[in-house]
Structures are given as structure tokens and as C-alpha cells.
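Title: Comparing notes on inverse folding

I've been comparing how different people in this forum approach sequence design from structure. To keep things fair, I'm posting one structure and asking everyone to reply with a full sequence. Here's the target:
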């Protein structure tokens, strides 16, 4: 209908391609008349690029993931890519998900969870799929891209703050014990607490990243008399723990202090006013998207470790100096 070649039509609908103004006008007029839109599926067959990025995640019970999902999807879409969401749920073997994403011929994968070892991400790499491990464990000799934070250092930040506030008998209430982020935050907290002369009188772990799991795990902490402050490895867990302490008749922060992790929106609610460690979620996600898009263009790109600093957000759940 436009009276031009197929390649001219293709160039018209390809961003940045060279096509004359007259040819573009003819093609666009014919397309409008026919109601034509380029087929992304047909284009992927021709280019061997699907523009699909697998987004592998779990922890859907935690409201923090809604912000993570929103940022990932919007940033990928801005760059012309589409996310293919994969819910890990209770499954932790990578084999099933590697095969699933290969069937969809994804251009890359973002493993967006801190609960898995680096070996999970390298399974995609071994299958020839460009992969980024977002919120992944920092390892000096990692051969896969990792974007996140230094969880060991963040755990030490909590112990240091407890020491500054004059606490001496403290507790650690982590997330799921198998999570690499929990292990690292616990290691950093316990070492710094020892160095500062703090007594860690109770160490326990929540079954998952939920309010109820935090409330249930706090019962173990409450068995130990005289706990002055509790560092929780997640804000939602911490909120459950705070309410368990209140139900036991303890006032916050007068009789017991609490510190969380992540700085989700609820942490600022008056009911909690939670002092917490803010993870720079936006910076981490923007960097991850930049890396995965870059790897689609250059799959042999050398692995990078990008760690972002965290900050303490002080509210009212710890006693003042």
C-alpha cells in the first residue's frame, strides 16, 4: 500500500534507523489506514532478541517487594524491555527456572532476592543467559554480577548504635536463618557487639519476612529477662516483635528499644516510629537494570560487584542519647 520495500517499512518502525521523511510519511499513512502495528514476536524471530528480562523473586508477603517490583518494571519498560516475573515461592532449585526462562528465550535475568547463594545466579550464567544478582551476597571472588549492600557492615552499624545509646544487654532477631543476608547481618552485628563489650543475650530467627513471623520469634527473646534492645533484620519482622513486646507489657523505648532494616513506608508510621537502616533500593535497582541491559549488548562483560552505602534513619524506637 505504501509502495515501498519491506526494509523501508522495517526502518520506519525501528528507532534510530535511517529513513527519508517522504518514505516515513507513506509508511505511516498506510499503517494508519490498515491499523498496522509491528509484531514484537515476529521481530524477535528476526533479531534473535525477545526484549524479555526474567525477574526472579520471592518474599512476596513483604510490602517492600511492591516497591522493588514497581521500580524494576518501570525502569525496564523505559528502556524498551519487558519483565517476565518468576515467583520462586518455596522452590530453591535453579534447574526448573533456568529451563522455564530458556523456553521464553529471555535476553537476560535479574535474580532479585537476598535469600539465595550466588550459585543460584551462576546457574543461569552457565546456561548462557546474562544474569545479575540483585541484593546478592558480596563475595570477593564472585564471577557473576552482584548489586546490593555490604550486609556485614550494616549489622555492625546496628551494634555500634546500640553501644552509643548506652545499651549493654541486647538481642538479635534475624530473618530466615538460611538467607545469606541474614547470615551476614548477624555476623556483622555479633562481631561488633563483642568488640563494643555488649552482651548478646538472645539470638533467634524468624521463619519468613512477615509481621506474624516477627511476633512469634519475639516470644523467644522475651524468655530472657533484661533485654534492653533488639536488632531485627527486617522492618516488618521488627513491627511484629514490637507488638509482641507491647503485649507483654513493655513500653517502647523506655523499657526496650528496637531497630529494623530496610526503611519501608510503614516504618515511619506513628504506631511504630521505627529507627532503621535504610537500604538504597532505587540506586540498587537502577544499577541492576543498567547492568542487565549492558549485558544484553555485551554478554561477555566482566563481572562487577556494586555495593551501595546504607544509612541509619533515626525515629523513636530507641532511647535518646
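Reply #1:
Here's my take.
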Amino acid at each position: 500500500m505504501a509502495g515501498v520495500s519491506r526494509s523501508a517499512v522495517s526502518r520506519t518502525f525501528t528507532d534510530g534507523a535511517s529513513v527519508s521523511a517522504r518514505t516515513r510519511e507513506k509508511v505511516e499513512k498506510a499503517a494508519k489506514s490498515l491499523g498496522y502495528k509491528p509484531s514484537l514476536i515476529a521481530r524477535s524471530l528476526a533479531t534473535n532478541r525477545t526484549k524479555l528480562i526474567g525477574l526472579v523473586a520471592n518474599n512476596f508477603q513483604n510490602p517492600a517487594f511492591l516497591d522493588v517490583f514497581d521500580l524494576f518494571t518501570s525502569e525496564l519498560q523505559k528502556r524498551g524491555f519487558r519483565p517476565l516475573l518468576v515467583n520462586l515461592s518455596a522452590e530453591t532449585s535453579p534447574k526448573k527456572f533456568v529451563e522455564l526462562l530458556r523456553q521464553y528465550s529471555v535476553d537476560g535475568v535479574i535474580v532479585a532476592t537476598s535469600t539465595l547463594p550466588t550459585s543460584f545466579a551462576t546457574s543461569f550464567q552457565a546456561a548462557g543467559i546474562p544474569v545479575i544478582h540483585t541484593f546478592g551476597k558480596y563475595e570477593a571472588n564472585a564471577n557473576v554480577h552482584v548489586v546490593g549492600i555490604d550486609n556485614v557492615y550494616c549489622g555492625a552499624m546496628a551494634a555500634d548504635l546500640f553501644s552509643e545509646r548506652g545499651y549493654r544487654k541486647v538481642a538479635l532477631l534475624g530473618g530466615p536463618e538460611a538467607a545469606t543476608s541474614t547470615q551476614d547481618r548477624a555476623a556483622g552485628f555479633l562481631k561488633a557487639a563483642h568488640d563494643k563489650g555488649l552482651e548478646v543475650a538472645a539470638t533467634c530467627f524468624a521463619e519468613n519476612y512477615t509481621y506474624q513471623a516477627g511476633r512469634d520469634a519475639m516470644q523467644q527473646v522475651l524468655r530472657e529477662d533484661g533485654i534492653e534492645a533488639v536488632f531485627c533484620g527486617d522492618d516488618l519482622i521488627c513491627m511484629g516483635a514490637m507488638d509482641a513486646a507491647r503485649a507483654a507489657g513493655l513500653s517502647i523505648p523506655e523499657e526496650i528499644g528496637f531497630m529494623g532494616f530496610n526503611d519501608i513506608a510503614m516504618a515511619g508510621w506513628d504506631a511504630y516510629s521505627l529507627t532503621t537502616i535504610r537500604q538504597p533500593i532505587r540506586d540498587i535497582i537502577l544499577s541492576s537494570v543498567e547492568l542487565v541491559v549492558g549485558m544484553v549488548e555485551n554478554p561477555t562483560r566482566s563481572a562487577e560487584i556494586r555495593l551501595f552505602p546504607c544509612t541509619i534513619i533515626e525515629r523513636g524506637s530507641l532511647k535518646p542519647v
